[in-house]
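By way of example, what follows is a protein record of this kind.
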Amino acid sequence: MSIIRIVLAIILPPLGVFFTVGLGKHFWINILLTLLGFIPGIVHAVWIIAKNDGN
């Protein structure tokens, strides 16, 4: 499942974060980062997915 979330994070970063943590603060931070620049949104999304992969 994490591979699918990482692919989603590359295509649309907030979607990957949403499927990992839901509508929490990390989702809204990722929306902001994606709007400011697509690459920071991707980096944040992959980081959140990797961080929560063990849970």
